[in-house]
Amino acid sequence: MILVVLPAHLRTLAQVSGDVQVEVPGRATQRSVLDALESRYPMLRGTIRDQVTLERRPFLRFFACEEDLSFDSPDAPLPDAVVSGAEPFFIIGAIAGG
Asked: What string of H, E and C letters represents the secondary structure of 27-88?
């Protein structure tokens, strides 16, 4: 199971009060985690990544093991600590403005 930490507005949309866990068949990648997340919480489709291109939305970032994974390939394997459940996969809303 992969532990996913969602920003508050996506937790509200998904109607969950905390972190969520998703089962990822096969290799754990950003794509497979997001596929599993959107399958379990269909109301999140189009909020984290574009529904057509499946590219990450501009004001969301992905982090794991204190590393920014936002610009990594969506098919790159996630760190072992995330796969084992020792560390979460974070989806964070970027802060913009001045």
From this structure: CCEHHHHHHHHHHHCHHHCCCCECCCCCCECCCEEEEECCEECCCCCCCCECCHHHHCCCCC
Which tokens sit at 73?
């390939």
Residue type, 36: A
Task: List, for residues 44-77, the tens digit of each pLDDT value.
Answer: 999 999 999 999 998 899 999 999 999 999 999 9
Residue carrying the six token digits 């969506």: 74
Structure tokens at 12: 């509200």
| Max Cα–Cα distance, the chain, nearest Å | 42
Q: How far apart are the first and last CA of the chain?
A: 38
Model confidence at 33, pLDDT cuts 50, 70, 90, reads: very high
From 14, 1, 7, select the one nearest 90 (Cα to Cα).
7
